[in-house]
Specification:
Strand content: under 5%
Distance between the termini: 43 Å
Number of helices: 3
Structural class: mainly alpha
């Protein structure tokens, strides 16, 4: 599923920066905090997109009457 791949897109980078000390110092901490925030936001937005699509599909009728050819 594309949504799962999108949700996990920042996981490798996040794991690299939170798993071991690959970069240290205040700038590294700020970067890691921003990366963590963006990762969380990406997950929320992906879930919102999927929910919006599912709601749209549920609102679409199964069948639509064929319009008459008036022209």
């Amino acid at each position: 599923m594309y949504a799962a791949g999108l949700e996990a897109a920042l996981d490798p980078a996040h794991a690299a920066f939170t798993g071991k000390a690959v970069w240290v110092g205040p700038v590294a901490r700020d970067f890691t905090a921003e990366l963590t925030g963006r990762r969380a936001r990406l997950r929320v937005l992906t879930q919102r997109i999927v929910e919006d699509l599912e709601n749209e599909l549920r609102a679409t009728p199964e069948r639509v009457a064929r319009p008459s050819a008036a022209w």
